[in-house]
Amino acid sequence: MDVKEQILKIGEDALAASRALAKLSTRKKNAILEAMAEELDAQRAFIQAENTKDLEAGKEAGLNVAMLDRLELTDARIDGMIKGLRDVAVLSDPVGNEISTWNRPNGLEIRKIRVPIGVIGIIFESRPNVTCDAAALCFKTSNAVILRGGKEAIHSNLAIAKAMQNGGKAKGMPDNAIQLIPTTDREAVKVMCQMTDYLDLIIPRGGEGLIKAVTEMSHVPVIKHYKGICHTYIDAAADLPMGWKIAENAKCQRPGVCNAMETLLVHKDKAAEFLPKMGEILEARGVELRGDETVCRYIASAKPATEEDWHEEYLEMILAIRVVDDVDAAVAHINKYGSGHSDAIVTQDEKAEKTFLAEVDSSSVYVNASTRFTDGAEFGMGAEIGISTDKLHARGPMGLEELTTYKFVIEGKGQIRE
Amino acid sequence: MDVKEQILKIGEDALAASRALAKLSTRKKNAILEAMAEELDAQRAFIQAENTKDLEAGKEAGLNVAMLDRLELTDARIDGMIKGLRDVAVLSDPVGNEISTWNRPNGLEIRKIRVPIGVIGIIFESRPNVTCDAAALCFKTSNAVILRGGKEAIHSNLAIAKAMQNGGKAKGMPDNAIQLIPTTDREAVKVMCQMTDYLDLIIPRGGEGLIKAVTEMSHVPVIKHYKGICHTYIDAAADLPMGWKIAENAKCQRPGVCNAMETLLVHKDKAAEFLPKMGEILEARGVELRGDETVCRYIASAKPATEEDWHEEYLEMILAIRVVDDVDAAVAHINKYGSGHSDAIVTQDEKAEKTFLAEVDSSSVYVNASTRFTDGAEFGMGAEIGISTDKLHARGPMGLEELTTYKFVIEGKGQIRE
């Protein structure tokens, strides 16, 4: 079998599995998730032995320390996967929920009901725990899943998938509900992206390069997360101590993640009062500052920012700062340079707040809070398959509901169309 | 300017328009729709003169009678467009509606709010009234729209778009909110399909060839409507007179549309009783019947069906009929050969009903009613931009809500992430 045939067979099997999954009760799905958790625990030594193969190959291939760290399945990380499975079992199952119901004058009753999407492909890079997390969320929502991980984690991914399959099977999980593509051939991704007969959705998880490649190759709908170029805007009516605290948190609390602030915007009337102390706070935290002319006047250590800085997702302790004329200019800057992820205004003025919240075209818009809250857990969704910067069909943090679609169920008593 | 530059400029202008549209009040949008209706009426002679150019060119190019009919803008059709604009003005505006609201333990208030999608591309074929209908729905939901119609209707489309633009502009419609691509160069479609910086969504409307081409070319998300291979299944527990009536209606009331029945499935225990009379009824209506062996035994005039017949969207007075063992076999047939559009079961048995409604993976599933009801107006949506056989993000009839997405609005009092 060549790669194409192999992947198409996986797709065909996944479609069949998705039909069987649609019939499972929530109780049964939860029992299967628990059985997966137990099997993962029982297979800990095997999983770690397989993980060691990947780590050794990675060292030989010259992976850097950060990549090797992402790859490693410590006991704590395996515990994390096991806990993750149990957490997902506890979450309420959206499948079958009624979104709305109405009656037509001719007596037809129309119900809009949540249903699984069908077959979901997850294309990811080096973190092997994605295998478990993503498969659990897809399974809980009765979607069949096809996982394609990075080649550097192939042994680990196969070991985790095997434990989930074996654990689940013992409790009646349909065959092929969770499949991991065993080949590391790059052709496999291309075939996945084009098998519209079997795949309903692809969620790529990884760097911008991976996501761009998948989007350009794909005829299957893709929900993607490109970048997080997040802004905080300090308005003319800002409570400045609140602004300092929020900006420090948004930049420094965890700078390497997508909801961290990359650009700080400051109303011109507050620049003189706000910037010097902000500069001190950020310098003390070791943040490199790049600003426009006004910023450089108030913060001696700031370097001049270039046009590229406004486009940059630093993901490290660097911050671009710009002074703007008013809330409209802040909105225009964000809509031009932002990535539609998370943006905040700090203000006590209702009008500025209203303008900002209505006009900033991002998935999460904040007033008087840190952008660091954009996250499935922080939003109370319980679990997260990712954060979407797309508009269709899921936007922002994606939990279980975002892994479903809907159908219309129409009940009649023999109505025909006149 | 070459075609690519021309289309990219249109995209850039549409994006700017979408920012302005997001600020319009519902009242203002409705006044603009009314002004468009008035201008369309005022420009009736001009529109019809331009339409005559298309009709003459069409005759010369050898278009058939049906195509020429679709192209023609009679007074009644112009009245229809004018009424359509006024109907859309009356519909409630989903933009700004709260989908849900909740509070987090840390005091953050999270609201999920409906917002416009942004810029929508409509690629359509020869019916010029789509220009008006689609633009009105996009405008009402504060989306900028880029229309690309068929070359045979170019004069008509430009005349309609011009009337809408002039009418709207007089009442404050933002520039470039509604744009029609003036060139008929095919390259324009390709550029549209790949301008992900400006377009958020493409809705192709037309035959399967157009839709396939757009889907394969597009890097922009596409919501599409491929085919309607709709089924009616007569269960063992069917009320037979109801079954005869529903099947006749689903096939004959308007056979050329997507929600008409193409295949009739009959439980084997009811075949002897149901089929002969069904055959008589359909023959009397002039329907050509193609059936499996059992069907041909009970209906003398039926021709033997081939595998291709189960895949066929006839869109005319032809019907495929198959006898199946039980509801599970009916579901399996529909999920294999159907197009995810509309399928019905006729039964008085709750268990069969439940199985069918849960397991048939179509956007609209019916019990004891004709599939002909799948339609925005029949569902009470007031207007319809199309019927989606996709799963993301809109499924089934699409009204105004389906032209929106959402954003999360988070209000705090200075919360930072610990």
From TrEMBL, chains A, B:
Keywords: Amino-acid biosynthesis, Cytoplasm, NADP, Oxidoreductase, Proline biosynthesis. CDD domains: ALDH_F18-19_ProA-GPR (cd07079). Residues 4-284 form the Aldehyde dehydrogenase domain. It holds the Pfam family Aldedh. GO terms for molecular function: glutamate-5-semialdehyde dehydrogenase activity; NADP binding. InterPro entries: Ald_DH/histidinol_DH (IPR016161), Ald_DH_C (IPR016163), Ald_DH_N (IPR016162), Aldehyde_DH_dom (IPR015590), G-glutamylP_reductase_CS (IPR020593), Glu-5-SA_DH (IPR012134), GPR_dom (IPR000965). Belongs to the gamma-glutamyl phosphate reductase family. It is found in: Cytoplasm. Its main location: cytoplasm. It comes from Pontiella sulfatireligans. This is Gamma-glutamyl phosphate reductase. Pathway: Amino-acid biosynthesis; L-proline biosynthesis; L-glutamate 5-semialdehyde from L-glutamate: step 2/2. Catalyzes the NADPH-dependent reduction of L-glutamate 5-phosphate into L-glutamate 5-semialdehyde and phosphate. The product spontaneously undergoes cyclization to form 1-pyrroline-5-carboxylate.
